[in-house]
């Protein structure tokens, strides 16, 4: 089969001669990945604020600490690999290796003990940490604060999040504002498929599912701005399902509430159904937004205090939901862009 | 719409063909889709043409398609895996390009979603699994000194339905579209309400059928290892690879059913309006997640365990030393297999269950690091006090050792629910699993490919290009996936076809460059094969032991005769062949030559492949009459096949004698070579004793 | 094993198994209405009777023994049972807990 | 173990490698298959357990189950397990082919009787609105019980094929080996049925 790629071979041969040199020192490669890992695992220039590496509250902060501790502890068991593999490779290479040769050597008691013991100890310590942290960071557990928590009801829609402040009788889309140093107690559901709610700088993710509720508790300890989003792929508008999170001090928060009340439109069932369609926030903004609202958010006043409950109960009526009644389906309604795949 | 309301072509229409959209909606995305479709069609036509041109249909039929020989079935599995792999790889490239080009990518969101869904599905079910199964098929019976697997026809059937489901996936490129729900296909998103198209149906049937194939394979391998070992080969004399295969087969037997159930229930929801996972009427999608990961987690160990086995063989052979800590390794392998059934919840730590549950499953997950760590240390100790040769398989193995540890580390980090709440569904997770799948599974397979190729085909692969390819894989892998750790920590979700935050851009660019390097690696790999084919005369190793191997598969000629062993070996040691060589007992003629009974060729597998392929297609497209006919045909064919009474053939003793004597003659006339010359044309597969 | 009396020995085993199974089935069918569904612990009884019947049938119909030739099968069955229990109990635990934590609407 | 296989002579040894006909191995392989099937059932059972409450206002176990019919089905299946066992020992002890076939046919009839009753039950349930499309609970019920029924159907088909093969070639080793596996399969289905009436029917009735 001489037709097999004669020409490229010629080209390659030259190229290979150069690399042949490098090949001979193959063990040098062993430390390369470690260096790369260091570069990428600890990015120096974190400009993004949507990360738990730049926490705005104690929950994310503890998660960050835990992350670094876990990484550091595993190093106890892993660094020996990085260090010893190159050493062994050099010492026992066939050509020029200086180590002794023991072809039948196949077990050594004390070594076995170390091999099982060290990882076991590391895991033991890690497990202990895991246990403590998991209990203390149970997202369902309300956070103790000097002031009582503010409650927020969250509804996942295609492709936006609806935030209801039941006590304040307001609701928003595209913007979540919370007062600083005040615990936030969220209850979440979905009115479409399953999604995953996430504000990285404040707390971890939690799934939201139709007909069910999950909870998320956190507290912000710094004024600032970050982003939240959905991380579970849900279709064309998925990457646009983000919202701003603003942390304000008490007065600013009250001012904001007053503003929402003043400028918001009523969240009646008609409006809700528009929101619940298969549209991105930008699309509904065009339909429902008014000049008084900001460009990136919708403000509502809550007319039905049971809205959240009725969203959950939609799925417990005991009657089948056909597509016209199921938000998020094409039949329920969708934006114009959505008809033919949103081109980014 | 009622499922019976469709015409005799079901949902099929002209608009289903991929090219039709090119006219109605011309765009880069559609061009990419149509190109992919054309490649499938073109490749099919080209293959059919070449087969006809070289008049090899007859050989193809009698030597390959109807063969029940485990070695040929193994090779067919691998070829199949490679074809699917090409697609999976290209999809990976396109995805990387899209993310590098974001926020102004060139693909529609749905198209991108199809890419990650098919990529994930293909890589796991149609690349990694068949590749592993193929290698095991080839090697394991040889290593345990058996003539074939326990159930050769069943073996053929497993291949048949795996292949037909793979072909179905290829068809989805041309007719209709694939699911956009990811490889995990979570409902309700994949339910009829939200995904009324045929996409999820393609996924369901491909999974159900290939899953059945894998289960049958698991049964076959388990029985083979438990019942067909050569005389004297106690459990603790089995090569390490066989142990890992045993554990992996057990995972196939017990882990595939949850997947089949999940996929079938999803199918019932979609086809017959059941309410397992729907939003309304008491359906519960959490059950799906639970079932999928009940399978999904053992699945990943199913893939990686045989790779661990391959590494064990490679480290020991190329360090010219016994495997260190055999019993430890066996125990570690078994612990991993059992533990893997107790950790599935770590894939949905964020679903809302109580911390107690998260703690239990988190700790169980971490525990797996212990036996895995023992394995890593044992491999290091195997090289310690050895004579290490830097051959291609060894470079993959060393690359694995270093890189896999990083992937394992990120796994342990993910196992902390606290941290997982932050990195779940991000690129950090994507980096984790590619970091275990590529250096773990694929490097293992590539090492195995380079290692056993001469046994299968009788000539060595080109060493230089092999090394080249290995380095390119290592470097390319690191460039592609390490940046994803960073991007994930900074909060980039997985499955994003675009992003607005330009912080991610540099990471995506580096990753794209990495993907290009990986492409070069693949090209080099193909080149290596072509060059080796060209030089096959020069690199022949007919004696069969090019690497100074240690287990039984090296004690016979290369390629191996159809009946494997003229006389079944009696085993006295763990490194049986090394032992025989050192005692000068190697290359002896058998005491007596006997007739050997082997299974005959059987067309059953091929027929089932065709029928099940049509059945799946008919189900996807709601062509009920066709589905009914093929389903009945399958039953009839299976029953009919049980009326075939003479499924064996006899290979006469004279023939065995002739083969063996010719081979022994060759051994006598061959110059043994030392290890320094093992990658030169002098190496004819006769290893010189060196110590 | 196939000595002269083999047939009747085997037959006796099967018949014993059958009779025991019938008795156990009857017990279950009698117990449930007798105890009634208000007392949920009746399920424990049903469970025990079921396990007893499984054991009887495994031994008498499927000839699973603890003897040496049968070790492979026994090991296989025990291992499968272990996995089965992990799967079923794990699922029940997780889904039960989730059901509890997910159906509050505040 | 299924020492049952000991009645089959090992194939005249051409060479010790011709293992693929070793009866012990074949039977063991079948056991492994059954255990995989067991997990399959087990998973569906688990789903059923999680869905006992998911009746969504539709009919539940209390409205739907007919324990009389259930008892009859149980007895039919249990008796068929005995008769298939008798067929096995008739075969093992080389009693006449006629008596063997007699017991096989009895088993087949019992199996068909079971299926008939089961189908009748389903139709009764459907008449009361108990269709799988009604609720998650009913989906789970109809995912599980008919799955067992489907297995029984295949068992019956298998039995038919065995009858034909015995009539065609007599009691050859291969036929015997196949029948042994069928018998195992049939016993296995009875084991599953114990789970079904305990968990699905009684469990459902108590908790539903
Ligand atoms: C075995 C599994 C496997 C492998 C090898 C790969 C290989 C690659 N994958 Fe991955 N990938 C997955 C499994 C795998 N992937 C899964 C499960 C998902 C999740 C899907 C989902 O979200 O649902 C995913 C998702 C995924 C994404 C989507 C990420 C996201 O969600 O945002 C991307 C994006 O770029 C990607 C890229 C790549 C690239 C560039 C490669 C390539 O760089 C690497 C290419 C490597 C090969 C193709 C190996 C081929 C070589 C051989 C098999 C040996 C050849 C031997 C001979 C010739 C003899 N993958
Ligand atoms: C071959 C494949 C493979 C392998 C081997 C592993 C191995 C491991 N995986 Fe991974 N995993 C996947 C494939 C794999 N994984 C895939 C495909 C997914 C995602 C699917 C999807 O969502 O699409 C996933 C997801 C995944 C998650 C879910 C994350 C999420 O969805 O949020 C978790 C969480 O715990 C996890 C953990 C682990 C752990 C702890 C190991 C351990 O086995 C690793 C053990 C190894 C080591 C630790 C290194 C060696 C050890 C030492 C050198 C010494 C000792 C070390 C210590 C003491 C720390 N994996
Ligand atoms: Cu999710 Cu209940
Ligand atoms: Cu996992």
TrEMBL record, chain D:
Entry superkingdom: Bacteria
Record's bilayer topology term: Multi-pass membrane protein
Entry-linked Pfam families: COX3
Cell compartment(s), UniProt: Cell membrane
Keyword terms: Cell membrane, Membrane, Transmembrane, Transmembrane helix
Stored InterPro entries: Cyt_c/ubiquinol_Oxase_su3 (IPR024791), Cyt_c_oxidase-like_su3 (IPR000298), Cyt_c_oxidase_su3-like_sf (IPR035973), Cyt_c_oxidase_su3_a-hlx (IPR013833)
Domain Heme-copper oxidase subunit III family profile intervals: 28-205
Residue ranges crossing the lipid bilayer per the database entry: 26-50, 70-88, 100-120, 140-170, 182-207
Keyword Cell membrane: yes
Entries under Gene3D superfamilies matching the protein: Cytochrome c oxidase, subunit III, four-helix bundle
PANTHER family the record matches: CYTOCHROME BO(3) UBIQUINOL OXIDASE SUBUNIT 3, CYTOCHROME C OXIDASE SUBUNIT III
Family in the record: Belongs to the cytochrome c oxidase subunit 3 family.
Protein name, as recorded: Cytochrome c oxidase subunit 3
